[in-house]
Design a protein that fits this description.
Layout (H helix, E strand, L loop, with lengths): L9 E3 L9 E6 L13 H6 L11 E16 L7 H9 L4 E8 L10 H16 L6 E5 L9 H13 L6 H7 L9 E8 L2 E10 L12 E6 L5 H13 L16 E6 L13 H23 L7 E9 L2 H12 L2 H8 L5 H9 L11 E6 L2 E7 L2 E2 L4 H8 L3 E7 L5 E8 L3 H8 L4
Parallel strand pairs: 4-5, 8-9, 10-14
Antiparallel strand pairs: 1-6, 2-3, 3-4, 3-9, 6-7, 7-8, 10-15, 11-12, 11-14, 12-13
Helix pairs in contact: 2-3, 3-4, 6-7, 8-10
Length: 430
Amino acid sequence: MNLKEVKGVAFVDGGVCASKGFRANGIHCGLAHKPLTSTDENSAVANNVLPAKKKNDLALIVADKECTAAAVYTTNKVKGAPIIVTKEHIKNGTAKAVIVNSVNANTCNADGVEKAEKMCSLVAEEIGIDVNDVIVASTGVIGQVLPIEPIANGMKELAEGLTYDGNSKAVEAIMTTDTQVKEVAVQFEMGGKTCTMGGMLKGSGMIHPNMATTLTFITTDVDISAELLQLALSDVVKVTLNRVSVDGDTSTNDMVCVLANGTAGNVPVNKENDDFEKFVNALYAVMMNLARKMARDGEGATKLIECVCSGADTEKTAEIVAKSVITSSLFKAAMFGEDANWGRILCAVGYADADFDINKVYVSIGSASGIIDVCRNGAGVEFSEEKAKEILSEEEIIINISIGNGKGKAVAWGCDLTYDYVKINGDYRS
């Protein structure tokens, strides 16, 4: 899928290593119980899908200097132990390293916090930093005790392998049921200085708009205060990751963190000025495109669905309607079947918890193959079923909904619901 352009930024390579002063690595330490598979390795590589092998399961990101840090976390009442530890470690607004494992979520375990703290201390001892400067995260199966021995045994290899281009090894290590690598990096100008920001994300299942529904790690060389970094992250999450849904399940270990090391040489961003707006715009570009990648790689998905709602009285109303559509199982199934059953769209619009006149609703469906109206003034219109199927045969589908004459507008992202979603989740632990 193509990256969606945002004015004022240019896409670059490098993920979390794109910004100056960040090293990363990923290794297979022995936690992985189920390697990613592909029936055709050459096809898998061509489509940016990892081939069958012992995938990396432990990642490390390290900054050359102390960073300002910010994070947001899951709103699930059940929280992974790493979240408890990370919250404590970055309450002073600084950090220098991120350690993360896949396979095991380290959630609902009596020794969870102890193991999360141990992961941090292993990093601190190996690279010579304060243990409170380490962010820790985990993803995988809930309720299984995390074995610390493989992590401890692999720490030396992990640290010694840190490089300024180790992003691809790191991003592989955080993947679970993901089939596609999710990285985005951008460059932008701030006060005459070239600044860079890059991120990596894992997320394929248990994805629903309620905080972040993912593990996401972002690095930047911008000099920005911890307070404004947190403000920017908290605001951008609302219009990016919080507007993605794959299956309606919000996970227990969701976390998004940002590290800013200040090496770009820009005038420090300490107030909400033009430079702050440029930073927010760049953060949006990274997180919005990561969100789209996550939706496209929903478990078993074959299509990315973007729903744009406009004409609402407020942005919040538009958001509620757009989310209602992309979370509808009936609608998602119709998209998989390439069936322009617009009644399912209108049904989801109708049960959205928002006030508007259903008789003013317009709906169109579009893709690279064209666009057609399917509903006007709350009623169906004649359209070519053949053309509709051609439009819905594309990988990226856009559903445009207008609910009135207001200025409120919002976009949400989802995917189709396929047979493979059930297959994947039916034997997730095996």
